[in-house]
Amino acid sequence: MRKPTPDGGPERLVALADGVFAIAITLLVLDISVPQGLDPEEYRRALSDTLPNLGAYAISLAVLAGFWRDHRAIFRSVRQVDGDVIGLTMLGLGLAALLPFPTALVSEYGDEPVSVVIYSAAVASLGAVHIALAALVVRRPWLRGGAAPVRDETLYAVDLGATVVVFLVTIPLTLLIGPAAMWWWLVLLPVKVWLGRRENA
């Protein structure tokens, strides 16, 4: 296997990722607002209208936080990065920065199947890029200074795989039963709880 030329340590790449995830999370909240100058009845109606936005925000916050944690876990043992690692990281950061758009679609047009399909495809794509990045780091021990992958990295890979599968399955499920397929996302809760217990064991 060709050994690409290292491009330095991972510190700047990890710092960039931290910043992009922070900005993406901040952008999620910009669509949540209540107009000024409303009478009490209009105010209560406007406040109730924010509930879908808050729900979409909570889901995307959990998604982005999980991917940020997994990204940091992937880089925990990395000592050098190369062009391939940088390229995959930039692709993943581009998808993370894009997530506020499908989040807005789900919050405003959650009853449209295409909104759920777009959101699911975006999350699954982001997860797939993280899996590819994790696999690349595992296959190139020189990026880790020869160190073996730690146990936590395996659990994070399982976590990523579960997320990708659940959101990929959502796409055909949405085409069959409509936006109610979003309830399928709840299957990730027991999976992540179980993985969290394994990680802390």
Topology:
Blueprint: H1 11-28, H2 40-49, H3 51-74, H4 83-98, H5 100-109, H6 113-139, H7 151-177, H8 188-200
Helix pairs in contact: 1-3, 1-4, 1-5, 3-5, 3-6, 3-7, 4-6, 5-6, 6-7, 7-8
What does this structure look like?
- With 201 residues, the chain is an all-alpha fold.
- It has helices at residues 11-28, 40-49, 51-74, 83-98, 100-109, 113-139, 151-177, 188-200.
- It contains eight helices and no strands.
- The longest helix has 27 residues, at 113-139.
**Overall radius of gyration:** 19 Å
Order of helices and strands: HHHHHHHH
Structural class call reads: mainly alpha
Shape: elongated
Number of strand segments? 0
Taking pLDDT < 50 over at least 5 consecutive residues as the criterion, the unreliable ranges are: none
Oligomer: single chain
For the report, how would you describe the main beta sheet? none
Helix content: over 70%
Query: What is the mean pLDDT?
Result: 87
Beta-strand percentage?
under 5%
Distance between the ends: 36 Å
Number of helices: 8
Keywords:
mainly alpha; 201 residues
Concise synopsis of the structure shown:
Helices cover 72% and strands 0% of the residues. It has 201 residues and is an all-alpha fold.
